Amino acid sequence: MDAFYFYNPVKIHFGEGAIRALKDEMKPYKKVLLTYGKGSIKKNGIYDKVMEALEGKEVYELSEIMPNPRVEKVYEGIKLVKDHDIDFILAVGGGSTIDCSKAIAAGAKTDEDFWKKYFINKDEVLDATPLGSVLTMAGTGSEMDNGGVITNWEEQLKLSFGGDPCYPKFSILDPTYTYSLPKHHLISGTVDMFSHVMEEYFSMPDEENTTDEISEALMRTIIENIYIALDDPRNYRARANLMWASTLAINGLTSLSKRSDWLSHRLEHTVSAFYDVSHGMGLAVMHPNYLKYVYKGHEKKFRRWAENVWKMDTSKMTDDEAAIKSIERLQEFFKSIGAPTTLKELGVQRDKIEDMAKKTGVYKTSYSDLKLQDVIKIYEQAYE
C-alpha cells in the first residue's frame, strides 16, 4: 500500500432521532445562518425540529438553494454572514445545500472574491465560518468531507474547492429524513455515491489492498440496498445502509493509499454546467463511458471487480472480455434503477460536444492522460 495521511474531524450523530443532539452541538454559538433548499423541510417537519433546537439564538435564513448551487446564492450568503456577524452556518438538506454553505463559510472570511480566489486561483482555504449539517439526502457525502462544488452558470463552469476549515463541526444523519425524497433524488444520490467509490477504486495501485476491499464492500452494499429502497421507500435498514455508505464513500476512507482519479466527475461537471442536469444522472452516463475509454492496461482490476462486486463468472472470459462485461454490467445497473445511460436522454445537443470538451479541464491520472480529442470522443461515445 502507498503511504498516506488521514484526517477527518467531523462528529457524526447517526440514527433515528439523532436530531436530539443538535441543541447541545449548537450551545457555543449565538448567531446562526440556517441554509436550506426549496422548502421541503417545512413540509416534512424537519424545519420545526431544527428551530426548536435553535431556540434562543438569533437565526437568519437563506433558502431556495438550488441543485448545482450557483455563485449568486453564495454571494447572497456571504453578505448575510458579514452583515450580521454570524458565527455559525447550519445546512439542512443534501449536498447542494452543504456545498453552498461551505463556499459561504470560506467566502465570508475573505475580502476577496470567493469565486476567483478559491475556484479559479485555487488558493488554500485558511479560515472559514464554522458550520454543521442536518442531512436530508444521501449521495454527495458532503456531510463528512472538506470540499464542495459550485456552478458559475454565466461562465458555464462547475468547479470544486476545499480545505480543512470547511469540514463540518458535526453532521446529523437520520435515515428517516430521507423517506420522503422523490424517487429521482434517490436514484441520483445512489449513482453519485457509487461513482465516488469508483473514482478511488479505479486508480493505482491496482494490487490487492485493504482500501479496495472496503470499496468493494461499499459497492455491494449500495447495489443490494437501492433495490430495497426503491421497492419500499420507508425501509429503515436500506435507507440507513445507503446513507452511511454515501458518507463513507467520500470521507477520505476509500482514498487511503490510492492515487484517485475524479475525471468522470470532471466530465460530468461540464455537462451540468451546460445543461443543469442532476449530477448523479450525469454521472450515470459519463462514468461508464470514461471507464470504457481507459480500462486498457488495467484489465485484471476490472476482472476482480466483475467477480467481487458484480458476482460474475469470468472463468471462460479473457481479461479484456471480463473488463468490457463488467462495465456493461455497470450500465445495466444504472438503467435498472431508473438512471439514464446516454447524453441524448439528458437533452444534450450533439453540436455542443466540442464546446463542452473545451471547457473540461482534464489532467493526468494514474489511469489516463486525456487530450482534447479524447474528451470529444468520450462525449461522442456517451451521446447515444
UniProtKB/TrEMBL annotation:
Residues 9-175 form the Alcohol dehydrogenase iron-type/glycerol dehydrogenase GldA domain. The keyword Oxidoreductase applies. GO terms for cellular component: cytosol. Keywords: Oxidoreductase. InterPro entries: ADH_Fe/GldA, ADH_Fe_C, ADH_Fe_CS, BDH-like. Residues 187-383 form the Fe-containing alcohol dehydrogenase-like C-terminal domain. This is Iron-containing alcohol dehydrogenase. GO terms for molecular function: alcohol dehydrogenase (NADP+) activity; butanol dehydrogenase (NAD+) activity; metal ion binding; methylglyoxal reductase (NADPH) (acetol producing) activity. It comes from Fenollaria massiliensis.
